User: Fold this.
Amino acid sequence: MGAWTGRVRGIGREPPVGWGRLFFAVFGAALAWSLHLLVSYLIIAVFCVTGWPGLRTALVATTLLCAAGAAASGVVAYRTWRARVDGQAWDAALRDPHGRATGFLLVMGMVAAGLFFLIILLGGLPPFLLPGCGPSLPVAPAAP
Amino acid sequence: MSSAPAARPRGEDRLKRFEQAWASPPGLNGIIREINNVPVAHRYMATAFAFFLAAGVFAIVMRTQLVRPENALLGPQTYNQLFTMHGTAMMFLFVIPFTEALATYLLPLMLGTRDLPFPRLTALSYWTFLFGGLFIFSSLLFGLAPDGGWFAYVPLTNREYSPGLNMDFWDIGLSVAEIAAMGAAAELIVAVLRMRAPGMALHRIPVFAWAMLIVAFMIIFAFTPLIVGTAMLELDRKGFTAFFKPEAGGDPLLWQHLFWVFGHPEVYIMFLPAIGIATQVVQVFARRPVVSYTLVVLALLTTAFISFGLWVHHMFTTGLSPAAMGLFAAASFLIAIPSGIQIFSWIATLWTGRLVWRTPLLFVVGSIIIFVAGGLTGVMVGVPAFDAQVHDTYFVVAHLHYVLIGGVLFPLFAGLYYWLPKITGRMLDERLGKWNFWLMFVGFNVAFFPMHIAGLLGMPRRVYTYPAELGLGGVNLVSTIGAYVFAIGVALLLVNLLLSFRRGRPAGPNPWDADTLEWSETSPPPAAQFRRIPVVRSRHPLWEQDSLDPQDAQTERLLEPLDTAPGGWRGALVVTMLDARPLAVVHVPGPTIWPFAMSVGFLVLFVGALLEDLFLLGIGSAITLGCLVGWFWPSKTESTALEEYGGESGGDRLPLAVAGPLANGAWGTGILLLVLLTALVTLIASFFYLADNPVGRPSDAPELGLPGLATGVAAALAAAGYIVLRSAGRPERVTRRRLATLAVLGLGATFITLTAVAALNAGLSPASSAYDSGFVGLLGFQWAVMLVLLAMMGAAALWAWRAPRDLRGRAVAFNAALVALFAAPSWVAVFLTLYVTPRLW
Assistant:
């Protein structure tokens, strides 16, 4: 970025854990869910147009991979949180005035990971319950 | 409870200079030139509310038409215009602008800052919104009001089936309102992330601010596809392209995808601010902090994400495969989880609080009841089998009004009753307020509950009448009576407002004993708000802090230059994003004519586009370009600020953030790039969607020669851009910056020439081929990015020659370099899409 000066002494750079890590910890699970939805939709479109076999397997694999991604985000959030606030009460980051925003975001990331992990698994259920391709609605017979 | 931090005893002169810096110019000149958030937000709210009243009148006229079977009050054409204008005005000209206006007013106060980061953009958003709204409404004067529904489905809205100018009014006017909304969104993002009171770390910001931050990002991601879609529709209507024409390989369903990728998040764009308002009201009138702040914020974030994955449930009857429907049905059910978290948090807060039953709380409780009912019918229509039965019936009308009136309008009214005393300085009448609530609550349910039954009995929506034999007269009569009662309730708010202006009790700074910073200022707040920057150590500063003064020597010292200061210019504080530690002082622009003048230029451009008049288009472009030059011309107040701060500083003193990553301008550029990225993804997805259709798709892949060469040029341009970025941060590297800016200009021009020649050689025919339309759309996007880059880099080059060490010129160079670093990878994506992937098919 160049040599932009002007930072005040004593105002440290944020966040203390690195932007990439914090971003993955907070948004990783949500992004895994978004990926799950879009990739599953794409897989359904491609398999249904081409008639390739194995639609259900592809969808299950996508679900498992994305659920693993969400879980990984939760693990990163937990481990980072342990490294930053271990030794304090679990909600120390949430209480005023002791907390810092990073701890708050990490706790939010942990809960989000759990929520999206479940949502991905639930979103992966329909292929087991419904037929894959084909017309979705009964086609009305032509009027006589 | 604490109040505004006491300004230290200062010379009268210093205070006077400070207040003068923030004072509005008098008279008409002031109305046109003032850009400060408070007066602009007043106008924004009043204008949006006027559009709400007009759209409400349309609804009443429609209900009057439907009061009995085969009524002849309105013809079908007028009815079509009314329901289109009702939906369009409510969605685009009332709810979103009004919530953005409320946030424009409140956020600086709530966050403890003096203004929004880009006040000129605030004013531009307002004037553009005003002219765009008047443009759409002016169609009524010519009998040309839009009549294709607020969703504008093609092929109904193609020129073939909608030959008049009606849908052009909709298309062009709407694009303008969308641009205004996105401008305001950019403003709110930077405000919440960077312009907060010291100590207001992310875990301490009010829920309303969280909601607006998340909504502002949603607006960026949701409105961009709609802008792309409406541009495609208008180009189709003008005969330049064939995106939605099946005979040319186009696809009407592409419009539905683009519209609902915007349309479903739009529901939550309207709903999340309402959650923020309701949460603020609930905790104040329950006299306790909201239960589980963390989960409420998480629920807002989760709702925002999931809302982008639901758009296909509006298309369940378009012939999707069962697997696809199952996937989106599941997502539709699952959004109930975060919504449930929010509802349960409010219930728990109310349950465990000491309730004070005033009008704002009544509206929130009414909202919870209505919204839960609307949410339940939402889960019902998320079931594809049920949706197939009730699709396009009055059941859906009932559902969406339960969600939007219960989930949005009632909280907005709660917010009005809650914050109007702050805005006007006078209390509203409590008894009238309660009448207002009960009439609206009862009227709403009487009007909309029977619509569920009408829908289940098979009454289709968007029809101007119905035969008596269907037996729907009774439920429609009840609905119409309810609509009138509801309207009387709304009218009572106006009566209450008028009475409040005339003889309302003075509100005082904090009539509700509320917890957030806006209540620490006088009601109404002064133009120069927060003479002394407040310091926050709690999520509820007015409940839990004895004082808003700094408690440590460093903060005290850092904030001292902002204590009833600066004088000759408007200054505010920026803080670190997470923990809100003081970072820099920023110059906030003062009164100027350019936002107003530019929006006039836009208006001339809309009229020119509507009438396909090249002269008007030329005049509008000239005005807009002239205003851009004026806008970016160095201002006197910024020069004064630079002189006072002596360029870069730091160490033990807050610097003046003019350029580089510390400056708000760089953040604004970042948001512009986010918009461009979203547009690029939308265009690429649309191209592949159309390319799937063999009709109109060329058999041979396009030539690689010139585009390949252009890719090399783009890579060189990125390298030169990087040098500009680096050298902008080092004032001594003047020569390097001069040469690099020139290189970017030369390479950009070469790139445009190469790609234009390649396009001409390809013999594209966008008017008769959807594939070519997608091709030209992507190329056009890339050229637009390059032209923006050339304009910015041209300005940077001028600065580099005229005043090479000036921070303002280095800021332009830095921001232009960011665009260059986007333009090159953007071209790689376009190149791969247009020139490489066809070889893989």
In short: Residues 26-128 of chain A form one domain. Residues 93-99 of chain A have pLDDT under 50 and may be disordered.
